[in-house]
Specification:
By secondary structure, the chain is an alpha+beta fold. The chain has four domains: 39-349, TIM Barrel (Alpha-Beta Barrel), CATH 3.20.20; 361-481, Jelly Rolls (Sandwich); 491-558, Immunoglobulin-like, CATH 2.60.40; 566-687, Jelly Rolls, CATH 2.60.120.260. The protein has ten helices and 34 strands. A hairpin with a 2-residue loop joins β30 and β31 (634-640). The chain is globular and about 80 Å long. The structure holds beta-L-fucopyranose (FUL). The site of beta-L-fucopyranose has 7 residues, from loops.
């Protein structure tokens, strides 16, 4: 495997040298600019969006990372229907489904012959169920591709850390790809890199460290997969064909090169990358990867999900959207409704291509086969290309009448490599002046697909200027659209004193309720911030006063306000940012001085739990991973916040039983990233 890759690099380097002396003739295709994708990588990138399903023992135990000791008997979906997943995922436009056949807890969703820790020992269908089989069948029925996630880290297996486990791991791969993927195309295999070390490990309950690069023998595992599915993409491990984008939020860098070399930032890649390793953006439709009823109110908003599309597919990456299947074994109705809204919105945003059939004017082409009209002929395989010495240029599109436009979509012909490093979009205004479009997007790379959003411009013409490229230009598609303005749900926030602020898109009117009912345009009009200095739920909609259209409902559940809270230790600290209701501020506890935050509630309450959120800002650190909580010096909870490093969302701790008191002590036993300070973006207290 490794040898092949080195050989490929040598060929690549040689070809770049040949390209530099430019021996290709006019009317012949330009020489590739290396690295280039394999045909399988191109086919995968063209899928653009596909789905993840996280389902397993975690679902039934309200966990993100099971320890490996949760009994198999707890797996019991009451109404499992893999076809329901496939129907929704297909209808929302996704091209495939990747299933967590085994997550870190080691529980198998198929009755593997190699372990007892599987669906076979669960009450589901009397132990005769087979989740992997069900999904494979559903994918075949609905014309979806299939992908597998099999966690290398296994917190259940007694031999984890020893060579015997790797045998087992490879046997399972073999079992899955031979017995299951017979009638469906395996398009991707996920080797998750996450590993927290500790686990049940057959009862040992200890920490085990391995070197992932050597321990799992990924090379052999990949060869096994390739022997049956040569075109499957490999995520993670030591032989990847695609790369993790570096976050679990669903965004790639504004500048996003598929070329990549070790040490590059995965958000961006680099123009001198040595391998074609395009980015995949994985994100869940809810905060967690697995289903938690408490997150029913936190399904990502439509506007957030639409943004995710623009920041992944629209930035030369693919989008892997996760659906946490619920306890009944189905995608939750809130999630399916939201994803269908998302599909509908995207269809509206890209409804009419305003450039279709327009013949662009360009300054240079390398011959008839590479003419400018190839960019608007709707054919992915034809492209406009310039002569070998020409690496900049413009493409101009004239409209018959003044045309409002706010999106431009561009594609490079990537089989010949990713080239463009800088471009700009201009429009000809009604007075006949060329003006740059007003955008927050940085117009650097294009790659397989790039979408630029800008303020609606009344244009007599559009012009794309290609300002810097790694070789002659090879552009196969340019489109433009007028996307309708999105009615986004309002944002609701409450400060420490209990004052509620609601904001929405400019020009929208906000209606809200505080009694839990769904707001309509007849509900109270939000004119100014109001006080809700008690427990309560605020729901709000934004409405367009002229069209009468309304946004989806935004909802926030609030408990007692935090204004009366006061810090006891560390002495002299106020920790204001931890109690201010503002998710973008955070307070840090310096662990070398103090490992506890103790605060007084300013009154006596019957407390049922608390919420903790770490600093989720892009460069935030110190998410608490292990904690103990005391109420008036009595321990009321202890545990771990699983996966909090990769997914730094609000965590809810429910005490063993409600307890009366006025003083809470939050002891930090570990931070997930080992940082010397623990971050507290927000703490709220849950009362009866
Ligand atoms: C992470 C895992 O630890 C999460 O639980 C989830 O499976 C996500 C897709 O990858 O690394």
């Amino acid at each position: 495997m490794k040898r092949n890759r080195i050989l490929f690099r040598l060929i690549a380097a040689g070809a770049v040298a040949i390209g530099a002396v430019s021996c290709a003739k006019k009317n012949e295709a330009p020489l590739p600019v290396y690295p280039v994708p394999t045909p399988a990588q191109v086919a995968w990138q063209k899928m653009e969006t596909y789905a993840f399903v996280h389902f397993g023992l975690n679902t039934f135990n309200d966990l993100e990372w099971g320890y490996g000791d949760t009994p198999a008997e707890t797996f019991n979906p009451t109404n499992l229907d893999a076809e329901q997943w496939a129907r929704i995922i297909k209808a929302a436009g996704f091209k495939g489904i990747i299933l967590t056949a085994k997550h870190h807890d080691g529980f198998n969703l198929w009755p593997s012959e190699y372990t007892e820790y599987s669906v076979r020992n669960s009450p589901w269908r009397d132990g005769k169920g087979d989740m992997v089989r069900d999904l494979v069948n559903a994918c075949r029925k609905y014309g979806l591709k299939f992908g597998l996630y099999l966690s290398p880290w296994d917190r259940n297996h007694a031999d984890y850390g020893r060579p015997e486990y790797v045998e087992y791991f490879h046997n399972q791969i073999q079992e899955l790809i031979t017995d299951y993927c017979d009638s469906v195309e395996l398009f991707e295999y996920w080797f998750d890199g996450a590993n927290g070390g500790d686990g049940y490990y057959g009862g040992a309950r200890e920490k085990r460290s391995i070197d992932p690069d050597t321990y799992y023998r990924y090379g052999q595992a990949v060869e096994l997969i390739r022997s049956r599915f040569p075109d499957a993409m490999i995520f993670g491990g030591t032989e990847p064909t695609i790369r993790w984008v570096g976050n679990e939020e669903g965004w790639a860098g504004q500048t996003d090169w598929a070329p990549y070399k070790p040490g590059d930032n995965p958000h961006y890649g680099s123009p001198d990358g040595t391998e074609w390793l395009p980015a995949e953006c994985d994100v869940s439709i809810r905060p967690g990867w697995f289903y938690h009823a408490r997150e029913d109110q936190s399904v990502h908003s439509l506007s957030h999900l639409v943004n995710i599309y623009y920041q992944s597919v629209g930035r030369n990456a693919t989008l892997l959207m996760n659906f946490p299947v619920a306890l009944d074994g189905r995608i939750h109705p809130l999630d399916s409704a939201r994803i269908m809204e998302w599909r509908k919105t995207l269809d509206e945003q890209f409804k009419t291509n305003l450039l279709s059939g327009i013949e662009p004017t360009v300054g240079n082409t390398r011959g008839l086969s590479f003419k400018a009209a190839n960019m608007t002929d709707g054919n992915w395989d034809t492209y406009w290309a310039t002569e070998d010495t020409v690496t900049t240029g413009s493409a101009e599109f004239r409209f018959d009448t003044v045309t409002p436009v706010n999106r431009v979509l561009l594609q490079e012909y990537i089989p010949l490599g990713q080239r463009v490093a800088k471009f700009g979009v201009e429009y000809l205004d009604t007075l006949g002046r060329w003006r740059p479009v007003v955008t927050e997007d940085t117009t650097t790379t294009i790659g397989y697909k790039r979408i630029i959003r800008f303020e609606t411009a009344a244009a007599k013409a559009l012009r794309v200027n290609f300002l810097k490229s790694r070789g002659p230009l090879c552009i196969n598609n340019i489109e433009a659209y007028l996307a309708p303005v999105l009615m986004v749900e309002p944002t609701i926030r409450r400060n420490a004193e209990g004052t509620v602020f609601i904001s929405a898109a400019p020009g929208a009117k906000i209606h809200y309720t505080i009694d839990g009912t769904v707001p309509t345009t007849r509900s109270a009009l939000f004119r100014e911030p109001f006080r809700l200095a008690r427990k309560g739920t605020v729901k709000a909609i934004a409405a367009d006063p002229t069209l009468g259209t309304v946004s989806p409902v935004a909802a926030r559940v609030f408990d007692i306000p935090t204004a009366a809270f006061s810090v006891v230790t560390p002495a002299g600290e106020k920790a204001t940012a931890a109690f201010d209701g503002n998710p973008s501020t955070a307070w840090y506890l310096l662990l070398s001085k103090n490992r506890e935050l103790t605060f007084d509630l300013g009154g006596t309450y019957t407390v049922t739990g608390l919420t903790y959120a770490p600093d989720a800002n892009r460069w935030g650190m110190g998410p608490v991973s292990k904690y103990r909580i005391y109420m008036n010096d009595r321990e009321v909870a202890a545990g771990e916040f699983s996966n909090i490093k990769a997914n730094p969302i609000e965590q809810t701790v429910t005490f063993a039983e409600p307890i009366k008191g006025n003083r809470i002590r939050f002891a930090v036993d570990a931070t997930a990233d080992g940082a010397a300070s623990a971050s507290f973006s927000e703490i709220t207290v849950l009362t009866e």
